[in-house]
Amino acid sequence: QVQLVESGGGLVQAGGSLRLSCAVSGTIFSINGMGWYRQVPGKERELVATVTRGGSTNYADSVKGRFTISRDNAKKMVYLQMNSLEPEDTAVYYCTGTLTAYGQLPKDYWGQGTQVTVSA
User: Fold this and answer.
1) CB count, 10 Å around CB of 4?
2) How many other β-carbons are positioned within 10 Å of the β-carbon of residue 74?
3) Contact at 8 Å (CB) between 91 and 39?
4) What span, in angstroms and rounded, lies between the C-alpha atoms of 35 and 52?
5) 8: alpha, beta or left, given left = phi > 0 and alpha = psi -120 to 50?
6) For residue 102, what pLDDT band results from cuts at 50, 70 and 90?
7) Which of 14, 32, 78, 81 is 20 to 30 A from 47, alpha carbon to alpha carbon?
């Protein structure tokens, strides 16, 4: 069973940093695009950052210059380094990726989310 599990969330003060990790478990053939989304209560889930298999990255304007997405294909991990955190960054952060399990078609997977709370 392929799963994505996030970790690293927590409570930090404004201006602080957190590093989120997403571990891909299960036997898979390949990992394609990976990304981080976040969702604030009462609002739609929004894209934070993406990284392709080749390492190309894309960021939401609101986090550009503060967040860095990276991946380690050998470890089947994707990370989100969050610096200069603001209260507006408070949300549940979800890891997502397009994965191909052996003998199956590629499909999108989502983690359960990790809470990030930034106090003013």
Assistant:
1) 23
2) 6
3) yes
4) 8
5) left
6) confident
7) 14
Torsion of CA 52, 56, 59, 61, to 10 degrees: -150
The confidence score (pLDDT) of residue 1 equals 84
User: Which residue type occupies 55?
Assistant: G
- DSSP assignment of the chain equals --EEEEE--EEEETT--EEEEEEEES-EEEEEEEEEEEE-TTS--EEEEEE-TT--EEE-TTTTTTEEEEEETTTTEEEEEE-S--GGG-EEEEEEEEEEETTS--EEEE---EEEEEE-
Cβ atoms of 79 and 92 within 8 Å: the answer is no
The two three-digit tokens of residue 82, written as one number: 């969050």
Question: What is the residue type of 53?
Answer: R
Placement of tokens 């799963």 in the chain: 3
Q: How far apart are the first and last CA of the chain?
A: 40
